[in-house]
């Protein structure tokens, strides 16, 4: 540690660190905050770690990087080591994980370079000051080129500049690669592999633009086949012969085709060819290129009216084969998914155009497919619309008088063998939520209550009969005449129904009297308390809490008149002293009634069920409920007494 004449570093948050030193008492002392670089030291003629104070530009740390295995990376943001020169433990704590990975990769690469050749001591200095151009690309100069490329850690921008200034460098390197491959010169091929890998690790957008171009990319992949540490891969054969590019609709724009192929190859490089060599910064840069390509492709295709119209004409064609139609649906899904690359206003416009072309008609057909994978794809597209603007979907459903709404309800009640029904549940919630306003939402709500509420209640009643104690295997006949068995309906489906009804109680409180009370919906939902699955019983309790939270006197009188708390109390008593979700849910209802001073329910609960609740009087909530009841009763009696006194006067 000491002071050196280092130039001030730019305030890059990725390289912002705190420097710590272990003191004699075994505690870490904070030495200050600054920015770390890996640079060449003219005084020691070595490459080292330097931390420059962010406030006064003084050197907080000067450490010569050692070839010994003394460095440790901890918790993604800390690099620590024992400095052999000062016999002390040091540590750098990074603000960003990407910065930690960046410096760690440089340290590891430098340590590998220290074991390479006798050129080590000269190259760093030549890169920084003496080297004005790259050596000619020949077999004999490959070791020197490799050293220059890999030592770019000391002056990464300078190495990148040298490569970009030599317009023919990459082409000459590819020509030499072809010669070495023809001669089966493995030593040369291994060196070229390392050079190409080093060029990629420079993480230059301008270099990426060159090597990922149509002219060079396959040869670049060929260079990367000769990794000396693994068996020879066949990247070129895979990309040229095994990868099948499907055009469900012919794409005539060469720019679009080029961007699509380039995106696939970048993903292949990132995920297959060099997954372990690329750090987070490089992966982020490659992802940016992919994101940019997707935006270009989407922008060009969405503005091509001929392409869009032909796409939908093919999907709607009755003569289209099943396989071809599936490919078209997959394309639509990918098209909508990639639209996230667009700016919000353009994405919104695209989705409205797709809807006007009849996308939802296609989705409605897909959701009725026997192929569950296609149903999942259709659901994903609807969720994309739901996230961007539910009103687009809401407008379509209201105009179709609920055709798609009925399909969504039906699929929520269908066992697809996965969590897909939860997605239908979320879409229905989004369509019915009260945050939106207007006639479209009112039409949707009207359709839901008129056509589908009874359908949901039928499923509940057929799955837990009111007089059967919820025994599995009990049967009933639903309103559509279909005989159902409890065992055929998954409990998760019943949970979604109950959650949706609870949601409706909260969102559409004006519907409670005409749709929930008159049709005994509350009574039927409480059949769930007879199920053996405790989470269904808890769901029924939460439904009751949603009703009570409306603070509607008419609703409370209905609950009292029909003794609808009895199933809740019976489930609570049967649960005993077990402290679980059911216990907490029931006590939560009691607490709400007490705190809100709902006198009708207070008197009803204590006067009707105290014999059952008395044995739980040690619980604070039960005890507080009884105290509140006594207070209310006293006030009522006092009022009665005052009235009687006044009457007698």
How many helical elements? 30
Secondary-structure-based class equals alpha+beta
Strand content: 5-15%
**Major beta sheet, strand line-up:** 4-3-2-1-7-6-5
Q: How many extended strands?
A: 9
What sort of overall outline do the alpha carbons produce when their principal axes are compared? flat
Q: Segments where pLDDT lies below 50 for 5+ residues?
A: 1-10, 116-129, 467-487
Instruction: Outline the biggest β-sheet.
Output: 7 strands, antiparallel
Rg, Cα atoms, Å: 36 Å
Overall pLDDT metric: 83
Short description, anyone?
The protein is α+β, with helices and mostly antiparallel strands.
Structure description:
The structure is a single chain. A hairpin with a 4-residue loop joins strand 6 (78-83) and strand 7. Helix 5 packs antiparallel against helix 6 (186-201), helix 16 runs parallel beside helix 19 (420-432) and helix 19 (420-432) runs parallel beside helix 22 (491-507). The chain has 30 helices and nine strands. It is flat. It has a seven-stranded antiparallel β-sheet with strand order 4-3-2-1-7-6-5. A two-stranded antiparallel ribbon has the order 8-9. The model is unreliable at 1-10, 116-129 and 467-487 (pLDDT under 50). The chain has helices at residues 97-113, 120-130, 142-150, 156-165, 169-182, 186-201, 205-211, 217-223, 235-242, 254-273, 280-302, 305-316, 322-338, 344-356, 359-366, 372-388, 390-399, 403-412, 420-432, 439-451, 453-463, 491-507, 512-517, 521-525, 534-548, 553-561, 566-575, 581-595, 599-613, 620-648; strands at 16-22, 28-41, 46-53, 59-64, 71-74, 78-83, 88-94, 475-477, 483-485. It is an alpha+beta fold and 649 residues long. Helix content is 60%, strand content 9%. It starts with 15 loop residues before the first strand and ends with a helix.
